[in-house]
Amino acid sequence: MRLALLGNSGSGKSTLARWAAGRMHAPCLDLDTVAWEPGQIAVARPAAAAQTDVAAFCNAHEDWVIEGCYASLIAAALPFGPRLVLLDPGREQCLANCRARPWEPHKYASREAQDEKLAFLLGWVGEYYTRNVRSSSATKHIPVMMITSRTAEKHRAVALQVGVNEYLGKPYQEDELLGLIRRYIAARAEA
pTM for this structure? Predict the structure, then answer.
């Protein structure tokens, strides 16, 4: 079996990946190990090099597990036919899990070194839902609309801060949603 696990940091990907790889007796690739320069936390490798490494891993093994928060690297594994699993326990749970995570010796020299990067990680987690859309010149113009049961102003504020254009609480009015869609389509047509 081939398994690709995608989700935000703190979503439980690594835990599920270790469990699945153990049950399958299969190798597991943590995409952090190919996405970042070795020994340099938060220094990205060239995308093409990371994608080549993912494809090489997939090609080298009959069964495997891949886990990470990088959609472009998961996409490099898709031609090999994995089962794709998206883990999404929600932003707040991911943040809580990141704050409580144990030391990861394969990524950090010490617990202190890991804790020094916690603020970066929490920011990364907070921006997860809009990062890919906003970072690509091909998609950054696409409006992001969030429809959610979380209607508190603090949730709306966080969503807008990370790049969401429209935030609708449930139950929402269909006419309101359709009106927003029409407005964005008209604005795009005028541009």
Answer: 0.68
